[in-house]
Each structure stands twice: as structure tokens, then as C-alpha cells.
Design goal:
- The structure is a single chain.
- By secondary structure, the chain is of the alpha+beta class.
- The chain has one domain (2-162).
- Helix content is 45%, strand content 28%.
- It has three helices and six strands.
- Strand 3 and strand 4 (112-119) form a beta hairpin.
- The radius of gyration is 23 Å and the shape is elongated.
- 23% of the residues are buried.
């Protein structure tokens, strides 16, 4: 009878361990998917603010529906983002609890502005990315979701957390 009890205890420990592993995996997947949804919602909100800037009269600080008034720096000032210049490169970005968002330059060729959002949740060395494109003069907003390799500085931070 003692051997049978030990066997049942070992079997119980294996089943509980497997259940815990499945639960952790499910939690991580949900966390990752929630982060992807959150950065998509944030990117949509920021895109709407860019369209608002385009339609706002110049007397109120907007572009007055004139593509010539559209620059990354002016858009950043309107929506409250930071513009940082290193050498000849100006980067317009913001960070919140969901991720980091970068505003692409105004492209006169195809009348578009892009917003790229990179999430903070990592799964398998990848982070969620949302690229939102605003096309003018219509103000049409399209978004593309993907998983990209975590940027080096974020991957280093993830590795430090894991130990």
C-alpha cells in the first residue's frame, strides 16, 4: 500500500505542475494580446488627433487643411509629443504604459503620416507592433498589426528582469 500512495503523490505533483505551467502560459498570452490591443487603441487615438490637427484652422494652431503646414514638429506640438533632435535627425515620439509611439515624417509624395507603436509585452523574443497610416486629404486611417523582434534596449531590459 505504501508504494501505491507514493505513486499517487508523484502523479498528483506532476498534474499540478502541468496545470500551473499551462496557467502561466495562458496568462502570458493574454497579457501579450491585451498589450497589442492597447497599443492599437492608442495609435488610433493619436491618428485621430493628427486628423484633427489637419482640419483645425491655422488661427487655432492647426494645419488649416493645407499639406504645406504639416511637419512632424508641428504635429508633435499640437498633440503634445516630444521632438528630439540628434544631429540632423529629428525624432517625434511619446511613451505611455502600453508602449512607445513614433511619428513618421510628413510625406508630401503620397500625403501620408505614419504612427508606429511598439508594445512593452514580450513573448518569444517578439513584441507587438502597430503601424497606423493616415492618408490626406480624406483623413483615412489604416492600421497593420505585426510581431517584431524586441528592440535591443528593450530586449536587454527584458533579459535583466528574467535574471
Amino acid at each position: 500500500m505504501g508504494t501505491q500512495q507514493i505513486l499517487l503523490i508523484v502523479l498528483s505533483v506532476i498534474i499540478v505542475g502541468a496545470a500551473i505551467a499551462v496557467g502561466i502560459t495562458m496568462f502570458n498570452n493574454q497579457s501579450y494580446n491585451s498589450n497589442k490591443t492597447a497599443i492599437a487603441a492608442d495609435a488610433q487615438n493619436f491618428a485621430t488627433q493628427v486628423v484633427q490637427y489637419y482640419k483645425t484652422p491655422a488661427s487655432q494652431g492647426g494645419a488649416n487643411r493645407d499639406p504645406e503646414n504639416m511637419t512632424a514638429e508641428k504635429i508633435a506640438a499640437f498633440i503634445g509629443w516630444q521632438a528630439t533632435t540628434e544631429g540632423e535627425t529629428t525624432t517625434v515620439s511619446t511613451t505611455n504604459e502600453n508602449g512607445t509611439f513614433t511619428l513618421g515624417d510628413w510625406d508630401n509624395t503620397d500625403s501620408t503620416v505614419t504612427i508606429t507603436g511598439i508594445g512593452k509585452e514580450e513573448k518569444g523574443g517578439k513584441v507587438p507592433q502597430i503601424v497606423t497610416t493616415i492618408t490626406f486629404p480624406d483623413g483615412e486611417i489604416t492600421a497593420t498589426a505585426s510581431d517584431v523582434t524586441a528592440p535591443a534596449e528593450e530586449q536587454e531590459e527584458i533579459d535583466n528582469i528574467k535574471g
